[in-house]
Amino acid sequence: MVPMKKVSSSLALKLALVIALWDYSSIFCHAEINIFGVTKHVYVINSLSAGNTLSVHCKSKDDDLGQHDIPFNGVYEWKFKMQAFERTLYWCNAWWYDHHKLVSRSFEIFRAEDVDRSCGPDHKLCHRKFQWDGIYFEKEDGTFAKKFDWVRK
């Protein structure tokens, strides 16, 4: 039989831990931060040219976001919570047609370890601009840099 004093002190410690985690989570709730990670937003921007539809199919290990067809100047967006220990990874297949010829690329659109360099000044909004000459990622200073060239077939 377990002594009552030992059970009640163990229960009190567990209760204190739950309350502390609850307070910690509620403090950071308004900043989109909690004990489960930071919320990130990825924006796929079609900047190809008038009349060109961009198709993307993105996924992570846990989530298949499906195919999305984005008209010129259109935006497709999703958000997610980062996994612990910077393991979050999303990759995409993107394609469009240039004068009836397929232009495509498979690539990593979000890697947790790159977030400081590829998600703009606040590190939460990750803009990806798709242009006729390649795929651009927003840098920390808010400008864009070409990250990938298209594969033309």
Assign a percent range to the helix content.
10-25%
Mean pLDDT: 81
User: And the CATH topology of the largest domain?
Assistant: Immunoglobulin-like
String of helices and strands? HEEEEEEEHEEEE
Low-confidence stretches: 17-35
Determine the number of helices (DSSP H or I, runs of at least 4 residues). Answer: 2
Q: What is the rounded distance between the termini?
A: 75 Å
What is the count of β-strands?
A: 11
- The geometry reads as elongated
Biggest sheet details: 6 strands, mixed
State the assembly state of the protein chains.
single chain
Gross CATH architecture of the largest domain: Sandwich
Secondary structure category: alpha+beta
Pfam families: Self-incomp_S1
Protein name: S-protein homolog
Family: Belongs to the plant self-incompatibility (S1) protein family.
Keywords: Secreted, Self-incompatibility, Signal
3D architecture notes:
The protein has 153 residues and is of the alpha+beta class. It folds into 2 domains: 1-32; 36-152, Immunoglobulin-like. It is 19% helix and 48% strand. A hairpin with a 2-residue loop joins strand 6 (89-98) and strand 7. The longest helix has 25 residues, at 4-28. 18% of the residues are buried. Mean pLDDT is 81; it is low at 17-35.
